[in-house]
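Obj.: predict assembly geometry.
Materials: sequence records (below).
Method: joint structure prediction, all chains together.
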Amino acid sequence: MTIARREYPTRRLTAAAAGALFLGLAACATPGPGEAPDGVYDPQEPANRRVHAFNKRLAEPLSGAGAGAGAVPGPVRQGVDNLADTLSLPQTVANQLLQGRLGRASRNSLRFTVNATLGLAGLFDVASGMGLPEDESDFGETLHVWGFPEGAYMELPVIGPSTERHAVGRFVDLFTDPVSLALPRPDRYYVTGVKVTDKALSLGKYGDSIDDVLSGSADSYAQLRLIYLQNRRFELGEDSGADESYIDPEAIDTEGF
Amino acid sequence: MVRQFYSRRGLLGMGLGAGAAALVAPVPALAVSAAQAEALIDRAVRDINAVIASGKSESGMIADFRRIFEAYADLPYLAAYALGVDGRRASPAQKRAFSDAFAGYISRKYGKRFRQFIGGNIEVGGSRKVKNAYEVSCTVYLRGEAPFDVTFFVGEKSGRFYNLYIEGVNMLLTERTEIGAMLDRRRGDLDAMIADLRKAG
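Observations (raw structure tokens):
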């Protein structure tokens, strides 16, 4: 790893990150009063629905992909999953440091060290059994911690549901992965390969649930949007049932039901 | 025991008509304690685990899940919430038909989800009181997976669970969105939507 090689991506990454942050976050819209019923703010709904129709067409040939991924033996699938997780840990640690979450960052550093060594270069998840479970983070979460608003909902081509903030985060993460930056060129592509394979395999695994939503719902766009937003907010700790989303068990007239 | 005592259906089952139910209403409602709420979810989770471990066919499991929903969930509340404002224009017969179709739909849909937990186990954590409900947190352990959260909300008055969060995804909101979409597809025709619902999930 020469100095010159290190310099080049750093400059590129700074420019890319700064550009993405500026363009993306400047555009993070916040809903006005009454514009986000049920916590859904989606001013670009017609455009998003067109992207959704496109994504749905892409997913159709994959329908029943659960069977395809089922052909891959369980231990192999698990190995790829563990490897992808280990490779993403440095980025998670970097983000947790930026978030000021030192405890989680150091637990994940330890997790990385344990799995990269005892776990045979990340093939086995030894750390989970030692009380260091999976704990992921991304730059979208960092932006949330820094106080940036979620922005409007958006559905991205191929990638799927997102928010403006999450999309900016994904873009920055793309250029700032410490593992990819540290590795020379051919190895960097193996990392990408592992991550893409893992995505494909987990799509197979959750394929049935995704199929249920995409083909089983009367309005798969609205279902996916609601499920994504609730799950993302839950992961970021933004929303628990106790707060503004509390549903009163006595507030509804159930007479006749 | 709790549910037989407090539920509307329990009272009706004891032979009290609507008039008698009105007489019963002014009696102060007996609130459920945190321990009772936790015990309810404990029993529900034990039953769900037993079904997951039974190795039955999908249809057999779905029938079992329907019984579990009927025993532990506040189904009238779930149905009324899911139908939302459209419930106001429903006739009593439509409300009954919707409740029945909805119970079947939800058993099929969530039965299939829980069926993916085969080989796994659900554990009840603690509970906390939130306004007039108890939030009972559970953790689902699946082989080779990071554990994840399922949270039940138990009504203080009803003593049954009336909402369920899986990894933050709220069943009531999700189903109200879905029922709304099904109604839209039928241009607001309740009977047509109910007929669709009997086949959905």
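Conclusions so far: Residues 9-238 of chain A form one domain.
To do: check interface contacts against the pulldown list.
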